[in-house]
Amino acid sequence: MKIMVTGASGGYGHYAINYLQNFAPAGTEIYGLVRSQEKANKLSASGVIPRIADYGDLESLVAAFEGIDRLLFVSVPNTALQQNIVSAIEQSEINYVAYTSLYGLDHEKFGLEQNHRATEEMIRQLGIRHTFLRNNWYLEIAAPQLKAAVKTGKLDYLSENGKVAWTLKREYAEVGARVILSDQEGEVVNLAGKPVTYLELAQALAKATGKRITSKVVSPQELMNSLSASGLSPMDTQLSYLYQDYARKGNNGEAQADPTEFEKVLGHSLTPLPEAVKKVINE
């Protein structure tokens, strides 16, 4: 069996390939799709068979997919590029696709839900077996604010009730590896952690570091000022604020998230929040 992971040099792809190398039965050939010879050389050194293609070049994708049986399709935030990948799948012998979609597609998710809904429908139209891995947010997204909070000793937040069901990127990738190998899941696998407030996130950070982390509800302007003063870059300041505002507004499916299905597919419990936070701030 020949399994390919797209985006093989990215964080999710890297983790997924490592899990495949650990889990795959003897005789499984693991391929990684990358965009440059330099990245291909790194894959080869790790025992993975590289294929080079550009998502904007359909012919290169068709050539890269030749002989592949199963595809772990790691999404990108561009519907036109994903259309190329689906078109290349259609011209290949790939018989099973696991696609990294987005949890809570019925809710507004910074506009990302539109790309994923469109891509899911394109994959359905292929008429081949598929699974949509509806991943929620990576805890790594909160890393800049968490690291800043370690330095400043505070993690302020906009709402006592706003929640986000974070989980480590590597755990989403482990599910991806297990699903593409087993081919036994249904069309949709909902993947989200236990919903937590920003206060609970601050408490987990305190436990992870052994440091005192203060927290309080602040106004939007106070939060922006606090984030900027903490040493975050303008981009990280804006992203940290956007996710806090997302949690504050609610109506996003986060509070209803249930990790049961996630842990069932994993075959083990998710990493406890303090331990997960410790991993993130040490990376």
Automatic annotation (TrEMBL):
As recorded in UniProt, coiled-coil segments are: none
What are the residue boundaries of the NmrA-like domain, all occurrences included?
2-244
| Record-linked Gene3D superfamilies | NAD(P)-binding Rossmann-like Domain, UDP-galactose 4-epimerase, domain 1
The record ties this protein, via InterPro entries, to: NAD(P)-bd_dom_sf (IPR036291), NmrA-like (IPR008030), NmrA-type_oxidoreductase (IPR052718)
Instruction: State the superkingdom.
Output: Bacteria
Pfam families linked to this entry: NmrA
> What name goes with this protein?
NmrA family NAD(P)-binding protein
User: What's the source species for this entry?
Assistant: Limosilactobacillus rudii
